[in-house]
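Sync notes, pocket subgroup
Present: LS, DG
LS reminded everyone that the earlier model was apo-only. Rerun requested with glutamic acid included. Inputs:
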Amino acid sequence: MNYKDLAELIFPESKDIEYYENKYPKRDLPEGAIVTRVAPSPTGFVHIGGLYQGLVAQKLAKQTDGVFFLRIEDTDQKREVENGIEGIIKSFNEFEISIDEGMTSKTEWKGEYGPYKQSMRKEIYQAYAKYLLEQGKAYPCFCTQEELDQMREKQEVAKIRPGYYGVWAKCRTITVEEAYKKIQEGEKYVIRFKSQGREDKKIKHKDAIKGNVDFPENDQDIVIIKSDGLPTYHFAHVIDDHLMRTTHVIRGDEWLSSVPLHLQLFYELGFKAPKYAHIAPIMKNDNGNKRKLSKRKDPEAAVSYYKEQGIPADAVKEYLLNIANSSFENWRRANKDKDIEEFDLQLNKMSVSGALFDMIKLLDVSKIVISKYTAEKVYEEAVKWGAEYDQKLFKMLQNKEYSLKVLGIERGNKKPRKDIAKWSDVKENIEYMYDDVFFANKQNYEFQVINDKKDINKILDLYINKYYNENDDKQMWFDKIKDLAEEMGYAREVKEFKANPEAYKAHVGDVSTVLRIALTGRANTPDMYEIMAVLGKDSIIKRFRSIIQ
Ligand code: GLU
């Protein structure tokens, strides 16, 4: 009896690995093309860090005319959550991180290297486990959980490195005959990898992000196939990234310490190992302490947060590139109108220790991104967001023609308005432009330099009865405000006022402020000329009269 007999007993149905090697041939791609992937597990909400990794991977594939795919890693079926897979697919769709290959629904995929969901690839992993068993590079292990716990305890007490290795790897020395018999008798088992590594020897790894890192060799006989017949992450990673012809494994740096094991698996299977790039997690400044963005503590850790707040996907992606490569900021400054697609992302420029996530900065980026949108686009997005999250906003925007004018104020010019960071800002920013909302809200007119009721009434009265003409151009419009100032004894020009402050009560700017506050209830607004043009004569008169009474 030999290894082959044992392998045959364990996996009688498995195909020869040649079958898979031929089915998933080397990809025919140009030199330097990066084939990479994002490989989330459907175990909870989609974390912004996962999206970040996906964005980086997708961008590198695209930049090099390579391939980017989405693989679902669902081998830990106990931890799988309902709609986990759908949630992942939805997030990547919403953020327009498009995949060339991978799962498109829970059961369907696109691409020639599928299925791209690990639970659908059981037979593939088993074929390769059989291949290792046949060569004596893997073996069945019959240790019970209890035995493993006892072993761990002993190791702890003796302060020995924990794990299943060397003399602790009890089942490693079981003879083929014995193992065969146990299996025939129905004993439960897992398949372990028989490590040839030695802890006192070092391996050198050159990571595309972390640079040179040395590790001790792996000597742990890790489980490759669990008792449910499914692989562990380690084994599935190696088989999948080999068969999917991945050139670069871009993943979270919690896996960095597994590199020795993974390289060893690639080697023992006779595969060429891919390059690795380990991304540090996104960090947050918590009262001066840098810590990982946490699923539990930080709402912004969930990808869904951005949609709920109405922060556009473009802005989130733009911000993530900002933290991915510090050179992005300069690039953006020099290329204000270019699409982020044109930015050349570099793995070796990524932060080794973890980029800091700053919500304020993200919102600033978002303001700039939205400032470049057309009124039409802002309108569509705000309506879509309002329909889902804010009925008041949705109703307010019913009159499309008027709303486009409102949203078009100070937009489409060289210095567009930058007061919207998220769709949830829109209502507050423009609601005063709608008569029904404006009059329904109680206005708290806080007049400033000029706040004498009589003076205010007079300014408003003179303005609507003498100086306002809806056909005036901007120059004429402002000249008339100056005339009004002069008529009331205020300085026509700020300069004049500054040169001779005793001679005047106030200046033309203060008169404008009265008009602005009377018109909008606010001291800060976009351009008042444009606001008046959109509001129109009737609304202006109505607003001023409501104050004069
Ligand atoms: N499923 C693994 C995770 O979610 C993926 C790691 C990898 O990209 O290989 O961490």
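DG: The pocket of glutamic acid is lined by residues 39-41, 73, 237, 249, 251-252, 255 (CB under 6 Å).
LS: Residues 528-548 form the longest helix (21 residues).
Action: DG to write up.
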